[in-house]
Amino acid sequence: MTPRTVEPSVPPRTVDATQEPAAFLRARRESLDPHDYGLPSRRQARRTPGLRREEVAELAGVSVDYVVPLEQGRGLRPSADVVEALARALRLDPGERAYLFGLARQRPRNTARPATTAAPQLARLVTDLSPLPAMLMNHRYDILAWNGEMARQLVDFGSLPPSPRNAMWLCLMHPEVRELYVDRERVVREGIAHLRAAWAAHPEDRELSGLIAEFAARDEQFARLWAERDIKVNGRGHKVLRRPGGDVIAVHFEVLMPLQDADQRLVIYRAADEASQSALDRLCAR
To answer: Residue 7 falls within a domain, yes or no?
Structure first.
């Protein structure tokens, strides 16, 4: 018997990348309730659900002659400002907004104010990570939450006023923290390279710009390394700390970004070897 030849099945094409921006805009426009926008009632019944193109154009502050070809998929590539205006007019949530920016091949501007407190769920997570040292920071390196193991390893954050509760400030200015790092030059260099990337991603953050200006004015090493313009975002790495009393603790660190709080970074330390784990255990026991 001759074996039957089975042709490989071709999965159906469910997404046309060239037409998806138009389809997404139409779907979101048609899902909106005109009453939510306080739009006046019209004598003529609406032939399509949702808002009209003219109404979206007016809400976004753009020409209807621009919205029509966008919804018809004529190959227009809107600017970042137009995408932002459409996202506001259509009341897109953060995930939908990011999706529209991705479809338009534009980079969204970060307009959200940096968090100054930790979300309760993240603060609880930091505590639950014990006995691993952990802390939560925003893009400025402001420390928003920490557990006892991290405080014992670095400094008692709770005893500090909120203003200097910043990892870069502590590394540069705090007399005890300055002496913790065995390879301090590398730690500062990598921290500055990360801070420069955060500064470029948040040009509207005046407080971050003020911090950088303060560091450059007060610390010669920071000013020198900042001028080198190195860019590096460390998702993981290692540090070696020498605690008062002589214990040396080598740690690997991981930096994780929560999806719903992408401006924040969860930093977790793990002992790099048995000797470091023993030293960390003694430190926490004290």
So the answer is: no
Instruction: Report the sign of the C-alpha dihedral through residues 95, 100, 103, 104, in that order.
Output: negative
207 pLDDT above the threshold of 80: yes
Q: What angle do CA 9, 10, 14 make, to 5 degrees?
A: 140
Share of the chain above pLDDT 90, in %: 51
Percent helix, strand and coil across the chain, each to the nearest 5: 45, 15, 40
User: Are residue 128 and residue 69 in the same domain, yes or no?
Assistant: no
Furthest C-alpha separation in the chain: 86
CATH number of domain containing 97:
1.10.260.40
Q: What is the C-alpha separation between 43 and 200, in angstroms, rounded?
A: 51
* 3-state SS, residue 239: strand
List the domain range (segments joined by +) for residue 31. Answer: 20-103
Q: pTM of the prediction?
A: 0.75
Residue 209 near residue 217 (C-beta atoms within 8 A): no
The residues that bridge with 256 in the sheet, in sequence order, are 266
- Among the listed residues 220, 91, 155, 274, the one whose alpha carbon sits nearest the alpha carbon of residue 282: 274
Q: Does residue 241 belong to any structural domain of this protein? A: yes
Mean pLDDT, rounded, for 59-76: 87
CA-based nearest residue to 265, from 205, 194, 215, 212: 194
Average pLDDT over residues 14-36: 83
